[in-house]
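Support case: UGB complex. Customer-provided input:
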Amino acid sequence: MEAVGLELLGDNARLLTTDADDDKRRLLAQLRQLDDNYAGGLIKYITNAKRLLQESKEGANPFEGCVPSVPEGERLDFGSAAFIELEDRGLAEAGRTGFVLVAGGLGERLGYSGIKVSLPTECATGRCYLELYVSSILAIQAAHAPAGQRLPLVIMTSDDTHARTEALLNDNNYFGAHATQITLLKQEKVACLADGDARLALEPEDAFRVQTKPHGHGDVHMLLHSSGLARRWREERGLRWVAFFQDTNAQLFRALPAALGVSAARGFAFNSLAVPRRAKEAIGAITRLAFPDGSARTLNVEYNQLDPLLRATTHPQGDANDASGFSPFPGNINQLVVELAPYCAELERRGGVIAEFVNPKYADAARTAFKKSTRLECMMQDFPKGLPLDARVGFTSVNQTWAAYSPVKNDPASAADKARAGDPSHSATSGELDLYKVNCKMLQALGVSVGPPSEAAFNGIQGLEFWPRVVWRPSWAVGFSALKQRLARPEAVTIGRDTVLVIDNPNASIDSLDLKRGTLVVAGSGEGAVADAVVDNDGWTWEPLDPNGDWPEELTIR
Ligand code: UGB
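Agent response - structure generated as follows:
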């Protein structure tokens, strides 16, 4: 390591004594590890930190002189003819895609003690997020990948999630995947910075240990580069795309294929799946920025930066809704479709490092001291910041948010507060209910008579749309066209209000069914059709839990 610029802020008196050699070795080992984990080493990290901290101290505006506008992209109605056409095209492309799940976050806002990918997506089957993702990829592989191609899945973990993710896979036999097709890449934390000069912060209780914190989900790009996986996917596996996604969105495979179709149709090197964004909603906005030198880029602008940028330029009213009731700028949901060839070229050029930022909370007006230590961070959606200017960057927005994005992020109390304020609750409750809704809406779009939904209240969230609890295995159908093939006569199928339909048999089809009341589980694996079936039983019911009962956490949070 170069002997420049590395300063530790802490109990320096003890650092100088000779009776602490073991502790010093321990510190050195940690510094070596921090050096290895960052592309370019610790000195590069500190150099970057000094630059970013100086810019922050000066109050530099990264968007100085930029003019924002709404970028090029596609806005689709879920289930429309255009949607289904792009979905079909995208599913064919999905057979040449590597999938990347970022699952290193602890999900502190949710307050769940387990890892988020182990949460049930819904209560009808209890299928967890990781199982849903893996089985969707396997279903796409069976239907759309070239013979013998096993579609890869990378899961980025962290110290907080790695062992439990590994155990979840092992305990469930990789959910049917081949063990070699799932790779876990663990992100490491980065050193904390004690002050504006980027001196490293030591633990208050241990003068021989540097404080560390997560670097953010942008680490995924560095790991795909340093592991050599992205390059091998392109050169050895002949894959064309890489799709990134977050830990808890059961709607992922309802919307991602259409985005892949849009990428192929429009030649997008980088395509962000998006949903309509209400002004001030805490999600990033996909924005085209024209720079003073005449160049332009399409980027994610985080919600806290959007309002001042708009006020200072084209929209004096700031981050406001237009006549549609939404912001004209689509909301980023961090499901990204990236073309592998330009992606690999860019990783090569930048050594896997992507744009970073720093967000210190200052303790003084001179902006030199911090309230607490800070660190550099990076976000996976910032990758286009360094792409060549001629790279086509766009978005695919699905107009019906419930069909594309319903993540589980908030604990019940904050979820109820958000719902009361008219914002999406992004809770285990909404995640489950939106999944039933999207499945029912798919069947309805194909001519099945469904519902109507009831109104329900769970965990203090009132007025919820409670559709029949309809779920099927991904191997039964991914996408509208596959679903259509499972229904010989959609007009002969009725799914009544408050009923439950679980299709567990991947080989069954439905000819005619009147699900009047209660529950139907289509189990087994034999081929055959549900025909002339009338179901009327007591079935399963969903009811709010007694708050004084002793229930599993997975249930109380929904
Ligand atoms: N994650 C990691 O794998 N590693 C990390 O170090 C951190 C996170 P959050 P966030 O969907 O509403 C994003 O914490 O970062 C994984 C976008 O930036 O749930 O606050 C983690 O496991 C924002 O523009 O979200 O905000 C999870 O799978 C907007 O789109 C994923 O990263 C926002 O999501 C996201 O982590 C949103």
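The mean pLDDT is 94.

Case will auto-close in a few days if no follow-up is received.
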